[in-house]
């Protein structure tokens, strides 16, 4: 059955896979000491136009969030994040597992504001008992958010400034970074992401790769002995080539952005059709995920013919569902879905 | 300057101190193997009328919450608690430090409801992604709450039942247990606390002791090798006699309840006066803490003559402050405070 | 330069890679819910002849050791292991990071004995202060060991029995399992490994796969909510197909054992030549690693022409070096090495 | 029955207790903000002649080791210690619980050497795989050791120098510090301890106090936000006066050193008698503990009349036992013991 369940349904983009095949028998050292890794790091630094950056490759998104946040925070600090952020909801407590509290801020369609960050920090230091509380230590946002929404240029800059003001590193979860940047509504480029954040990661798993995320420390702020910390978290890949070869290819000739744009186009085609047919959008998403409210009989009807995600119960008679597209979505499948709707 | 800043301003009740002096040179083993500890455990089991209980002594409240919660929860579980609960706010992330998330519920004057607990658990298991989320593993409530309020008998029983239904141990933080039970509005006895909870602790630090809390596991549910777990957390006292002698005396001739009643009486005397003088109560507390809203000029005036706690900013011109009484509060000081108000 | 530096120098076996290519565009769920994973689990259960087993796939060896050991041990327990075991030496403290002590036993060429395990456990319980000590909670051995050596059938059975006697799960690190089992000196089959251990893992990263290890719980002993625990450790792969497709192919037509045998054959060819040429073996390894003592001038000479591992300093004038072969080792390269020696 | 089982059998020294009684009803803030704490810190800084020092009070020894070591080490570091060190053996894995490995060095009668520390560090950095290993991050020694032995002045200085050379903070566990310094064989004063260490603690629990240890950071090296870290570990005492009042009294008129000397005198009286009667000393201890080898029939005979510690099995017919004295040991009890021997 055709699926729009999520954005990690297939393997890797053909070019990526071809490159793995082509390089397969070349002998290389492991644990990040291979030449592919050296080259992929340089490639990414060029793409983001950030010569001071350092880049590391990890395998998955939760792992990346866990290793990065735990390595950046001091032991007495927590991370400020939206209550709907991936780390707050769907990572099985991976951040708390490493000993850190998530300092939640209520989100609006997945986003938090500079004002709320500022208030949280000021309230903290105004509390006479702050020494008995968890210190705010960094800020986590997702671009795009878990609901497919985007921070505007101004929103990001304001958050970035408030973070600088309070000396809080700003970390951007880019599990779907390409799908955000490739959106027609995005006011930001990958260079902006690098410019306004202290750390971010470029998601590979959801955008063309079998696995892999590229973490970027933008201003000489890589934690000391970060390789050892990665190893300690069980996150150091022996055959580091597996991820670096994929990123080399993803950033060859702008492939990453092209395939991201394809996903956005497919998503917008679905969105346009949804609006024409009078469906109620739950969020107004300009990226690769569309959330709609359907009544439960329609839900059942759809379920028999196509796969998608249940998001949440809307009321007794309606449900929020999600259709996700990706680099791999075939337009004929989108047309099939549109016919069903 | 006379202080109503908190309820741990003095040393220990005279009888308690006298007992420490009297027993001082008796040779006893340590680490909980002393006879005072054996006797204090029996004494408490009698007082709570719970022969199946096991009792352990710890030094302080945050320590007790940390060791108990971490020992009860399975690694993939979190603890349900009010967002105003002590573990949520003023323990410097001691729970998250042990790897567990606090699953917050918005509180009403410090209290949470059985319905909110039930909803949280049902929403969890209804989520198709619950395997990627933190499992609810126990429930934490405070009696009295951090705002001096009390769960009614019916409220406690309903929470207890919902916990049983979902197989969630119910843990009651009794840092100020005496002050709750001695309230004229309390519908509960210490036997009820034992009956309706799975674990609770009897606060000593704030009620007559130099230090020490007595943890009670009410139904043969003490974690395996709990002494080793206490040691592993750095919380095992060598001279365990220090805490057990104090608890022996606190529960001799109902001293614990009598001195708790004194604190409540002193608090109510302040409250009555506050109401007569037209002060605005921030919470309607029947226990040993009174929270009021004062304008900032009054605040400054008071500050020069007496000590109390700033609680939080109310608005630009008003502040919430707290007066706490305790077993040690002298009535003459209360009268002095009333005169000032 | 031709390399014998380690056994993870190339990508994946051609068949494995071909299968990734062939299945690439099939849509499948993630996080272990895909059909490839279902089939790979069944395949492995058949291969090890253990219908009660449950199988999970992880990405790397240190990760597997960390997640498994932390999930099996109770909080107050540690893991018994050789002081030369991989977890003791080269995992950056990944076990301690999860809160557990490694209870070291001196090893003999990488191996520990049932007697030493027995003594450790008996000494523990004989110590009057054992409640203040770390409880022995499981046993970790490697097959083959980090030095290429093998436990005999009798050694393994004796260890297995002592573990049963003390109720200690026996966990076998099989990072190089194939290279052990394919050794001409191995007295054990993979079915024996399953029969005599409680948990073991089948190493993929070093034997034909791009990444991936298959953990086997042999007797209905998979930890509760193990998927959530994996997620919590940041170790749950979104595209679980990546590992399961590879294992399906590795266990198709005995590929895993055939390619392991190739590595052993290449290794023994080197070993034979070493002995003929009068080199001193540091360990007498029947598997895919050969350790020899060379004088430092020879070392320098070799370094210019071929890559290998420095193992340790032997004395002022000699060094221990390692040649590793793998499924990917070309016989012509072995011949080139032999010519050099 | 008279006991020489350990050095924490009684309550507190009379003066200490008297001071607790005398100050009992003085109102003071908590959590280290009380005036007693301020004064006790100053007192200790004077005694150790170290104006740059900062002092913090904790409750017990294992807690102190855990909080200090975890606060000093970076996440990728471990602590170098004797394999017989208290943290290595009898703290239930409290150090590993915080995520850190203990890098063991074989001890000689409880002591380690500068050479062994140096070798460990050099071997570490010489290992090409050191990024996959636990970095040495600090050194832990006990003075006196767990076996009652003492580092000579030269030994301590050499260790101190090697630590400086490798930039490793030197931490001295002073659970029995007084008993070491008061030994007639001690070549060191408390000022020397402060001078040659980076952190040390002055044990109160075993020397005159009901509880409490004073941690000293000697060179402006207190970890950032250490109070918050203490709180996070559940180790912050609400009534901080409890410990600070005791330390004030212990360092009033040299009481700490006087009562320590008494314990040493009592211990040496036992030792002299043991030697006269031909007992075999297991260690030659100049401090407050005496370890001897007795045959098992003598052991049984003694057990019926007096309490002491079993230390370990010596051989089939002999056992090592320990007699400990303390500030509280009565000479008449020592005479009774001598008569028995």
Could you explain how this protein is built, in words?
4 copies of one chain form a homotetramer. Chain A is α/β, with parallel strands linked by helices. Chain A contains 14 helices and 11 strands. A 7-stranded mixed β-sheet of chain A has the order 1-7-6-5-4-2-3, sandwiched between helices. A 4-stranded antiparallel β-sheet of chain A has the order 8-9-11-10. In chain A, strand 4, helix 7 and strand 5 form a beta-alpha-beta unit. The longest helix of chain A has 22 residues. The relative contact order of chain A is 0.18. The mean pLDDT of chain A is 97. Chains A and C meet through helix 1, helix 3 and helix 10 of A and helix 1, helix 3 and helix 10 of C.
């Amino acid at each position: 059955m055709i699926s729009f369940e999520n954005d990690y349904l297939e393997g890797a983009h053909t070019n990526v896979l071809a490159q793995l095949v082509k390089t397969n028998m070349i002998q290389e050292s492991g644990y990040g000491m291979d030449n592919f890794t050296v080259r992929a790091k340089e490639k990414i630094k060029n793409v983001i136009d950030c010569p001071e950056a350092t880049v590391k490759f990890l395998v998955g998104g939760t792992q990346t969030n866990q290793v990065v946040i735990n390595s950046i925070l001091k032991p007495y600090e927590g991370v400020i994040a939206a209550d709907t952020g991936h780390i707050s909801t769907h990572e099985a407590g991976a951040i708390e597992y490493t000993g850190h509290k998530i300092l939640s801020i209520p989100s609006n369609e997945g986003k938090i504001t500079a004002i709320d960050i500022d208030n949280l920090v000021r309230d903290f230091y105004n509390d006479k008992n702050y020494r008995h509380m968890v210190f705010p230590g960094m800020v986590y946002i997702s671009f795009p958010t878990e609901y497919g929404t985007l921070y505007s240029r101004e929103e990001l800059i304001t958050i970035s400034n408030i973070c600088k003001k309070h000396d809080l590193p700003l970390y951007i979860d880019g599990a779907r970074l390409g799908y955000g940047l490739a959106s027609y509504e995005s006011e930001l480029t990958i260079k902006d992401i690098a410019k306004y954040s202290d750390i971010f990661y470029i998601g590979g798993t959801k955008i063309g790769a079998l696995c892999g995320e590229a973490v970027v420390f933008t201003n000489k702020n890589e934690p000391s002995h970060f390789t050892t910390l990665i190893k300690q978290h069980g996150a150091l890949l022996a055959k580091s080539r597996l991820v670096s070869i994929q990123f080399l290819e993803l950033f060859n000739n702008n492939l990453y952005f092209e395939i991201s744009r394809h996903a956005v186009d497919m998503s917008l085609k679905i969105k346009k059709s949804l609006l024409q047919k009078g469906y109620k959008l739950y969020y107004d998403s300009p990226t690769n995920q569309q959330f709609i409210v359907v009544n439960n009989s329609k839900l059942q009807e759809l379920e028999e013919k196509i796969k998608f995600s249940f998001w949440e119960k809307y009321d007794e008679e309606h449900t929020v569902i999600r259709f996700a597209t990706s680099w791999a979505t075939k337009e004929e499948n989108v047309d099939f879905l549109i016919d069903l709707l």
